[in-house]
Amino acid sequence: MTAVEAAAAVAMPAPRPSVDDAGTVAVLPGLFVPEASQWLSASSGRIAGEGYSWMQAVHWVAGSGLYQPRRHRSHGPRSFGSTTVRVAQELAQLFPCRPGIGYLVRRTGLSERSVEYHLAMLREAGLLAYIVKGTRVSGGPAQASEFARMIPVEFDEALGIRTVQRDVDAPAYTRAVSGIAEAGRELMAKLANKAARKVRRPRSKASPKAPARGGCKGVDEGSAAGVSDEVRCTPMGVGTSTVPTAGTPSFPSESKLVSGVSTSATPKESKAGGRRTLNAVGRRFQLARELVEELDWLRGCSVPRIAWVARTVADAGWTVAEVRGWLHLRGEASRVRRGSGLLATLLAGAETVLDTPEKRAEATDRWRGAQEAARRHRIEQVRARAERYEGDWDAPASRAVQNQVEAAFAQVRETVSGGRRQDQADVADDQALEAEPSAQELAELRAVAWSQFMAGETELVMAAVNCMGQLAAERIYGAELVRSAQRIAGGARSSLMTYGPR
Q: Is the dihedral of CA 49, 53, 55, 60 positive or negative?
C-alpha cells in the first residue's frame, strides 16, 4: 500500500451538510465489534448488495490496519492478512452465506481451528453478522451458521460514501448507497481492482513449481495486495538487471534446465479425452474409496488405511466387484469390531488364489448370483407378509383355539354338504349326555379339577362350561368350583391381574 492509499484509508471526511466534497477530515478509531454486537439486529453496518462490493470492504480492512486481532486476544492469527481474504472469497460466492466448517476446510486447505479463527476475525471487524448461529446437538449432525455480509460504517466514513434509508420502517442495516466523495473515488477504484483479482493459496517451499531463491512471488501468491508493474522476475542463469550490458544474454542448455520447464513456445497437447491416468497409489485410493462406499462394515474407516490394506489387490488390477466376489467366497462376519483389520484378514492371499481374470470373473458371477437370490428371497418374504397381514382373517396363535376353529369350520362344511354327519354327531352327543357318570368318576373328575384350579389352571372346568353349559358343569364339578373358575378366567382378561406360576 502506498502512502496515498494509507492516508485515504485512515482519514475520514467530516460530516457535511451539502453534497460537495469540501471539508475537514478526522482520524478513524480502531475496528472491533464485541461478541454481543455480532448479530444482524445489533450491527451498525449495512448489508452488502453483492459479494463484489463486500470484497472491496474486506480489502480495505486488510490494508487499513485498523483491526488488530492481538489487541483483543492472546492467541490466533496476528493480523488480518491474505488467509483471511481467501476465506472471505469463499464466503463471497455463497448465497445464502451459510458455510460449514468442513466446506471451508476443503476449499481453503486450512485446519478447522484456523477457519474458526478467521471467521471470528471477520465478525470482529464488522464484516460478518450472525443471522442464525449454528448448533451442535449430541448424536445429530452439526448445523451451520448463516451470516450476513456486512460493510462497516467505518468504511463508508473513510471513503465518504453517502447512504440513504429508502424505507423508514425498515431496519438501519438496509440503507443503500447514494453517492461517494471525490477524495474516495481513487481508493475505491483500487479496491475494485483488488476485489476483481483472486487471492490464491501460497505454494509450499517443497513444490517443484515454486520460484527459485532469487525469484519473486506472483501477484496473487500469499499476498492480498497486488505487486506493482515495476517488479519483474529474472530468468534463471541471468543477472538481476533486465537490460543486458554486453550483447545478447546466453541461456543455459536444455540439459541444465530445471525439470518441468519447456523451451518450446507450443503448449503440450492434452491426452485423449483430457483424463489423467492414475498411477499405483491413485488406483489404491480409488479402490479404497469404492470399498468404503459399498461395504457397510467399512463405513467410517479411513480411506488411506483401507488403501494400504488393499494395496496388493489394487496393484493386481482388481475392481471393487472382484473384491466383493472374493469376500463372498471367504464369507463375511456378522459382527465387525474393526473393519480395516477384518478386511486385511479376508484379503490375505487373495491375489495368489484368484491370479487370473477368468477366476476373478467366476467369483464375481457367483457373488452376483447370490445377490440376486437374496433379492428374490426378500421379495417373497415381503409378499408373504403382505398377504398374511392384508387378509380378512388371521389364524389364532393358541393351539386349543385353532382346534376349536377347525372343528367349527368342519361343522359348517358338513352342514352345507347335507347335514348327515351333523345329525350323527348330535345323536352321539345325546347318548353321551344320557349316560351319567358314576359317583366314583365324579369324585375323580372333581379332584383333578381342584388340583388344576389350585395351580391356577381353569381350562378343564371352563371347557365343560363352554361345551355342555353351566348347569351340566355344576353337576359334574360342583357350583363352587365352577364359580371360582369363572372368576379366575374373567380376571385373566384384565391387565390389572396376573396369576399362575412365575
A: negative
- Tens digit of pLDDT for each residue in 367-399? 899 889 888 888 888 887 777 656 555 656 667
- 8 Å CB contact between 87 and 118: yes
- Residue 132 phi/psi, 5-degree rounding, is -135, 130
**Could you tell me if 159 and 184 are in contact, meaning their C-beta atoms sit under 8 angstroms apart?**
yes
Q: Are 186 and 8 in contact (CB under 8 A)?
A: yes
Cell 463405513 -> residue: 299
Q: How many angstroms separate the first and last alpha carbons of the chain?
A: 89
- Other CB atoms within a 10 A radius of the CB of residue 47 amount to 17
The number of domains in the chain is 3
This prediction has a pTM of 0.40
Regarding whether 308 and 431 lie in a shared domain, the answer is: no
Could you list the residue range(s) of the whole structural domain that residue 418 is in?
Answer: 410-492
Q: Report the SS3 class of residue 115.
A: helix
Q: Return the SS3 of 86.
A: helix
Provide long-range contacts, Cβ within 8 A and 24+ apart, for 139-144: 142/100, 142/101, 144/98, 144/99, 144/100, 144/101, 144/103
Q: Can you give the length of the chain in residues?
A: 502
Q: Are residues 327 and 422 in the same domain?
A: no
In angstroms, the CA 443 to CA 214 distance is 119
Least confident range from 45-54, 240-249, 282-291, 303-312: namely 240-249
Residue 25 lies in a domain: yes
In a domain, 253, yes or no: no
8 A C-beta contact, residue 82 and residue 199:
yes
Same domain (yes/no): 417, 362: no
Run of H or E including 132: strand 128-132
* Dihedral sign (CA 319, 322, 327, 330): negative
Query: For helices 479-492 and 470-477, what crossing angle results, to 10°?
Result: 120
For residue 105, what is its C-alpha cell? Answer: 476446510
Closest CA to 458 of 496, 484, 495: 484
- Give the 3-state DSSP-derived string for 345-399, with helices as H, strands as E and coil as C: HHCCCHHHHCCCHHHHHHHHHHHHHHHHHHHHHHHHHHHHHHHHHCCCCCCCCCH
327 and 428, same domain (yes or no): no
